[in-house]
Amino acid sequence: MDLTYTEEEEAFRAGLREWLAKVLPGLPPKPDPGDWPARRAYDLGWQRMLYDAGYAGLHWPVDAGGRGATPTQHLIFLEETERAGAPYVGANFVGLLHAGPTIAAEGTPEQRARWLPPILRGEEVWCQGFSEPDAGSDLASLRTRAVRDGDDYVITGSKIWTSHAEVADWCELLVRTRPVSDEVPKHRGITWLALPMDAPGVTVRPLRTLAGSTEFAEVFLDEVRVPAANRVGAENDGWRVTMVTLSFERGTAFVGEVVACRRVLGELAREARANGRWDDPSLRRRLGRLNAEFRALWRLTQWNVSESERTGGVPGVGGSVFKLRYSHARQELYDTAAEVLGPDALDLSREWTLDRLSSLSYTIAAGTSQIQQNIVAERILGLPKNG
Amino acid sequence: MSAVYFQLSDDQRALQAGVRELLAGRFEREALRAAVDEAGVDGSGARLDRGLWRELGEAGFFALRLPEADGGVGLGLPEAVLAFEEAGRALLPGPLVATHLAAGTVPGAAEGQTVVTAVDGALVEWLDEADVVQGDASGAMPLHSVDPLTPLHRVHAVVPTTAGADNSLAGLLTAAEQLGGASRTCDMAVRYARDREQFGRPIGSFQAVKHLCAQMLVRTEVARAAVYAAAVTADPLDIAAARLLADEAAVRGARDCLQIHGGMGFTWEADVHMYLKRAWVRARRGGDAAAPEESLAAELLLPEKR
Q1: In what order do the strands lie in the sheet with B152-154?
Q2: Is some CB atom of chain B closer than 8 A to the CB atom of A318?
Q3: Size of interface A-B (CB pairs under 8 A)
Q4: Phi, psi (rounded to 5 degrees) for B154
Q5: pLDDT at position B156, please?
Q6: Which of A72, A78, A291, A307 to probe by mutation at the B interface, max B CB count within 10 Å?
Q7: What is the CATH number of the domain that holds B77?
Q8: What residues of A are annotated to the active site?
Q9: How confident is the model at residue A317 (pLDDT cuts 50, 70, 90)?
Q10: What is the DSSP string of A267-283?
Q11: Are residues B181 and B129 located together in one domain of the fold?
Q12: Which fold has domain A7-120?
């Protein structure tokens, strides 16, 4: 066990800090959260800056246009960008963290050449069309149908919880290409397609969250034609193609957020001291315990990253352990923020009030806590399936 | 070459396996139950197995961190933490932490010849069996100890625990024991949930039981990351955090393990209660959770280090 950085890693960190200090003051002002085109432009602009500085696709393999950085360097990147207050990955999330890595791992050379460079250069936005109204936790039961017609697939169905759908160029879409039967289990009839969002028959309807904002959308597909050349992997092999990279989402996706939570925790303490609530020992102790919690989550992240280095890149189910604890801790953080704020906790113009509302999604999105507990119990602890 | 690599090294894995094997051979379930029978419900008959104590000494359990030039093993805090985790997993009795910390200063402690205990706030563990007592134990009165394998005395002239380096290390080694206990109770719960059948199937196939087990593992693994990191950095705040998380993992883990055992979990015959009682005893060492929570809170107001 070693927690010291190499000279190369420290040099990487120093170079990154220097660059961040130089470019961040020149960033345009943050766009209005409700202005989606402006958000797209802002997020893509940031991605272009990363590309020009050589930081785009840090963790992607070199032959996919990435820098082939070590997981530790990726961790340093996420840590330092968050610490410096750099823009969040935002609209580039699906492209950089899921669709891109999937294409890099499973796509043909032509597909890689077509789709990967625009992601890295900040030119195209991807969204994710996985969940459906009747296929949430039970994702493999999805029903959006794709029927082969000549060189095309013709797709009909609907998707839900699709972030950035309004401004995306592409959607990584899971469709059913073979009906479920006694011989065909539900996850053996799914295919992965790249859907151009401007194709005729695609309708996007924004969904309003409980926080009042439109963070994601429903996507309706009415006989949409997609070239078969847009299929990544074999027909009916889309479940495996997707799962190759889905576990990455649980590996390092929350690194920046843990750093952010630790920063917020410091802000909570200072706010509590300023407004007098710091004098309450039960609040102080609650904040102290949260400090322990987020320190441990940071260490668990380092543990998981080192483990993926040791086992050769694929993060284990340890990501589920992390996500279970982190999502709960984040909610506890903003519940504590409400205690610090007192009456102001009911004021939507306070940032922490909105963050408290947003935190409610954490135990639901990307696998509910209940599903995650099933995964931990069955795949790590070996308890029998079929509850 | 030095680099961030937060996983056990091959040598550390070997050490972990070695200690586990030693304890499995020397303090298996039968030995544990025999010791409990001898001790009685309240620990009044508890005796330390001096032969086992010497074997631990010979194996380097106490001299682990002493330099080789002084007859020690020359290893560091991470290795000590791994050894204490195994001790906690096996529910090994005795003032292990105090004796380990006395190695090199109290003659015979390193070799397992001398049993050393220490006054900890208002309590002293294993006073009657110890050869050397650190701190003022005058007027100590025996308690009916909740843990049969940790006889306790109450000291009425309470000396406040000082925040010295040794106390911090004692906290870390205690956290390591708690981690081992948490990990063990998780294993026990999972095994029972797989074997025990009701309604014609293993109770571990019911989600209510599965989720209890999953949470036990989550608490254990979060505590493990905190405890191992504190062993590497030896930073007092990392140790405080490790302490809080390991206590939680051990106490709640034992509680949930008991619950999963159902009626059997409430019996003397099942081992679960002993894990819970030991976890309670360890959680009291160095005082309650207030001090580590307050120091971790105070840190939030410091200007950022980096």
Answers
A1: B132-134, B116-120, B123-125, B152-154, B141-142
A2: yes
A3: 188
A4: -105, 130
A5: 79
A6: A291
A7: 1.10.540.10
A8: 249
A9: low
A10: HHHHHHHHHTGGG-HHH
A11: no
A12: Butyryl-Coa Dehydrogenase, subunit A; domain 1 (1.10.540)
Give the integer Cα–Cα distance in Å for A225 and A305: 41
| B86: closest CA of chain A, how far (Å) | 17
Nearest chain B Cα distance for residue A91, angstroms: 30
Domain membership flag for residue B2: no
Residues in chain A: 387
Contact: B218, A374; criterion CB under 8 Å: no
Residue B159 is predicted with a pLDDT of 59
Domain enclosing residue B235, as ranges: 165-300
Compute the nearest-CA separation of A202 from chain B (Å). 39
pLDDT at A249 over 60: no
* Amino acid symbol at A45: G
Cβ distance of A296 and B295 shorter than 8 Å: no
Q: Is A378 near chain B, with CB under 8 Å?
A: yes
Q: Residue with structure tokens 């069309």?
A: A129
List the single best residue of A290, A295, A374 to mutate versus B (max B Cβ within 10 A): A295
Q: Residue B207: what residue type? A: Q
Of 1.10.620.20, 1.20.140.10, 3.40.50.12280, 1.10.10.10, which CATH number belongs to A254-380?
Answer: 1.20.140.10
Least confident of A125-129, A158-162, A353-357, B158-162: B158-162
How many domains are there within chain B?
Answer: 2
How far, in whole angstroms, is CA B138 from its chain's centroid? 27
Provide the chain B residues 230-269 that lie in CB contact (below 8 A) with chain A.
231-233, 237-238, 240-242, 244-245
Q: What CATH number has the domain spanning A126-236?
A: 2.40.110.10
Q: Is A302 in the B-facing interface, judged by CB distances under 8 Å?
A: yes
CA–CA gap between residue B213 and residue B194 (Å, rounded)? 11
Of A6, A265, A295, the CB nearest to B241: A295
Token pair, residue B20, equals 């586990």
What pLDDT is stored for residue B140 in this prediction?
A: 95
Residue at a domain's end among B103, B125, B154: B154
Q: CA nearest B260: which of A293, A381, A371, A370?
A: A381
User: Residues of A with CB below 8 A from B287's CB?
Assistant: none
